[in-house]
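$ run holo --ligand "nicotinamide-adenine-dinucleotide" --emit tokens
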Amino acid sequence: MKISIIGIGSVGSAVATAVKNTGLAHEIVLFDRDGVRARAAAEDLGHAAAFSYDVKITAVNTYRAIRGSEIVIIAAGANQRPGQTRTDLLHANVAVIGDIVPRVMAHVDPKNVKLIIVTNPLDVMVMLAQKISKLPPSRVIGTGTMLDSARLRTILSRQLSVSTQSINAYVLGEHGDSSMIAWSSACIGGLDLATFCKQTKITLPMTTRRTIEHRVHNAAYEIIQGRGATWDGIAGAVADLVRCIVNDERRILTVSVADGVGDRFLSMSLPRIVGNCGVIGTLMPRMDATESAALRRSAKIIRKNFSML
Ligand code: NAD
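-- output --
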């Protein structure tokens, strides 16, 4: 499979490495408006590939070279500086998506291509990319809260001494400050959280849950403070999404896709079934009244941001 990545900064190059390591692509095409940066990344990754899978990695300076790509990953644009929110990137990155998506669409097969959006503020960028591309919403997929859900599962795994693989727990809504945790539907080894804690004699009081929520919400800010940017977590999420699509795995991932029309038009993260043709179905998990209200609030914030474009 041919996969193209647009935007080869910290995130794009980590995504290229993670996608290469899946072994699922026979060709990875890198494009950045900074051609020197893309060429250097392609060289470096090509050398790394000599130690793993046989994959052709090329940097290109024209969108024509992405022709034949089944998946195009968009990771270009401004990133958060320390203290900035994702929403602060809105106007800068509207221009970036507005520049990239028409050029991509001029060279891919609209009947087959899947766009994966990584650029922040994620949900609004998905809505914009879907409008511009005119692709079915099911094939314009934002990584959404895949990363936030992974952060939650990692924290819970340490707290409960059980593998992340056995934890189904979701962060939903905006990939941003208004995201919420659907505690009511969290499930560990087939048990709800309260039953799991009772049987394992672990206590998870409300104060601990609040601390976990705080850590999930602030993870990106803390990483940016310490490292300047985040890239490994999101690269893992993108590679997992690519794997799910290419292998038609039909796993449930908290990706963000657009839905609805007019005032109801919205992209946010919910648990969705993902396969070879993109998002196949959307699930609404069990939530209590507080959680439902938090999800509605998050949806409202995304719509408000989109209305500002
Ligand atoms: P970066 O500054 O390191 O790299 C951005 C790259 O985009 C640069 O190489 C730049 O030349 C390129 N670019 C900008 N405009 C372009 C255009 N019109 N066409 C082609 N290339 C263009 O930034 P980064 O740290 O790699 O972050 C990239 C994006 O990913 C940001 O919007 C960031 O917020 C987002 N991000 C999202 C998640 C997530 O969970 N969705 C996680 C981390 C970062």
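-- notes --
The longest strand covers residues 266-275.
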